[in-house]
Amino acid sequence: EGEGEKMRVISCCKAVPEEQDIVVAKDRQISFEKAEWKFGQYDLNAVEAGKQIVEATGGQLSGLCAGGKILDNSKLKKDILSRGLDNLYLVMDETMEQADTYQSARVLEAAIKKMGEFDLVLCGAGSSDLYAQQVGNQLGELLGIPVVNAVNKITPQGDKVIVERALENAIEVLEITLPAVLSVTSEINVPRIAGMKDIIAANKKPVTKLSLSEIEVADSQPASMVFSTLAPEQMERRLNILEGESDDVVDVFVKLLSAELK
Amino acid sequence: MTVNNVWVITDDQKAVGELCGGGRQLGDQVSVVLFGDQNEAQEAIASGADQVYLFGQPGNSVMIEAYSKSIAELLRAEKADLVMVYSSVRGKLMAGRIASGLATSALSNVSELTVEDGSIIAKHMVYGGAAIRTEKALSDTVVVTVGTGVFEEMPKDVTRQGKVTEVNPGVDNTGIRVLETRPKQGEAVNLSAAKRVVGVGRGFAAKEDLKMAEEFAALIGAELGCSRPIAEGEKWMSKERYIGVSGVFLKTDIYISLGISGQIQHMVGVNQAKTLVAINKDKNAPVFKQADIGLVGDIYNVLPQIVAKMKAQN
Ligand SMILES: Cc1cc2nc3c(=O)[nH]c(=O)nc-3n(C[C@H](O)[C@H](O)[C@H](O)COP(=O)(O)OP(=O)(O)OC[C@H]3O[C@@H](n4cnc5c(N)ncnc54)[C@H](O)[C@@H]3O)c2cc1C
Ligand SMILES: Nc1ncnc2c1ncn2[C@@H]1O[C@H](COP(=O)(O)O)[C@@H](O)[C@H]1O
Known about the structure:
The structure holds 2 protein chains of 2 kinds.
Chain A: E1 7-12, E2 15-17, E3 23-24, E4 30-31, E5 37-39, H1 43-57, E6 59-67, H2 74-81, E7 87-92, H3 101-115, E8 120-123, H4 135-143, E9 147-157, E10 160-166, E11 170-177, E12 180-184, H5 196-202, E13 207-210, E14 224-230, E15 240-243, H6 247-261
Parallel strand pairs in A: 1-6, 1-8, 6-7, 7-13, 8-12, 9-12
Antiparallel strand pairs in A: 2-5, 3-4, 9-10, 10-11
Chain B: E1 3-9, H1 16-26, E2 27-34, H2 38-46, E3 51-55, H3 68-77, E4 82-86, H4 89-101, E5 106-107, E6 112-116, E7 119-126, E8 131-137, E9 142-146, E10 163-167, E11 176-183, E12 196-200, H5 210-219, E13 223-226, H6 228-231, E14 254-258, H7 264-267, E15 275-280, E16 293-296, H8 299-313
């Protein structure tokens, strides 16, 4: 065991519907029928952090996603593969679309155990739909290995990593023995934008699909029963929108604004 | 309605008052886990706690989160019905580890908690604030994370009696060593109390350009806030100043956004404002769908004009 240790990293990403495409009905029910799907904005930081590690140490970066059938969408798969993954594992089951943080962590745990040896599991700052910021914490505890959230910097060091953790009023520097689970912040890096070459290469990367029975995860009861998911009450807005940068237009704007500030 | 045993866990003493207030509202018996000293335990009792478990500092190179397993065992032994963990960074990590230990999930960032027919009902935002979910918790011990601003503090009663138990359980911290803790300057600003706020977004191309916005804000007596990427990606402003679902919720009379697109995650933080004003160069920016007054224009061209005109008025 030394400095030259190759790292096997798994970055966890969740596919979510695009919030901007949510349609709100009169009764405040929301619909995703028209929504595009994408990977959570902050999960991309987990992929980028993994990529930077394997670029530095050598090794392999795997993506792991649990979700519904939507994961089989070729555009989605290509999108995440083109961001630097060497391979991708998909756990698909319709029940995953409603999974709570414990159920998700259980499924990821079971999948990770099937995937073989690993050094580091990376999660994002929070999923774009639930933003519970919990799946990583719950997963680490289930795997029984060191787990830390709010990780702002990761430096591999042999069979350990040195991480900086962003607390409210302090930066904590930690030495963590691998394997471990880290949830990174959205500040840790700026995810790279895939180029044409990466997109083409994505087509050739192996994708392994797993079912819940293949990963042998026993049923777990949901922690809660959802009563409703409703859009918040919206205030009526006046929508008095002026266009242009001329003196006259700005003058009208300033008058309107000043009236509000009285 | 109440449940029997409510537990409060916080690593930050500033949350004790409100969480104990919430505990009193929801439970017959309120127990608090603290990592501080006797004075802090007494403050918790004055705020509504019946008993306090005081966990000692676990040693220099060990995080308090290493107590998660012991806390989970304590909660199980004491038959906790509801566990409210303060949603600090440390609190979240403990909540998740404890929840896994109790084979349940952590209901996160709840905005409202009630007890109906003996069950705990929680509300929290989902889809970046596009919706509010109401759910009934089903597990024997319900674990939630809560921030400040959800519950009211009770007036402190220094004559209240309670029991303080000092505990020094073993820590399970294999594999994590704290090498160093560097204090970092937080900013003492309370945007949620401001009556007027100007918010800046990625429409600003450079940090020094924020001076324009500062001048404008000062002119109208407003606090300056921002979108998340300005605080996190660009780090031009402190995190205490970013507005939205994962940041500050405003209760202003007026909010004026400059170069902010108006994504749902930002807008939920401002949509309680009495008046929303937006300036953006893209007339299709979503921010204009929720504006009372809007100006489609380049901030670099219109803001100096606005400032000049407003100065001339005064
Ligand atoms: C789970 C989650 C939580 C989030 N929480 C938050 C949150 O709490 N708060 C938050 O703010 N965001 C949050 N976000 C991020 C959010 O989705 C948006 O990415 C962010 O709000 C966009 O910031 P912005 O409007 O400054 O930047 P952009 O979306 O890049 O918009 C910049 C705008 O400036 C305009 N512009 C550019 N140049 C000019 C100019 N010269 N003059 C005038 N206008 C100009 C453009 O037309 C554009 O509309 C969250 C995201 C996720 C996934
Ligand atoms: N279904 C999932 N599949 C893969 N990764 C997930 C899943 N759910 C959550 N995660 C990971 O856990 C992080 C935290 O999620 P959450 O607790 O839902 O906010 C996300 O940023 C992802 O990295």
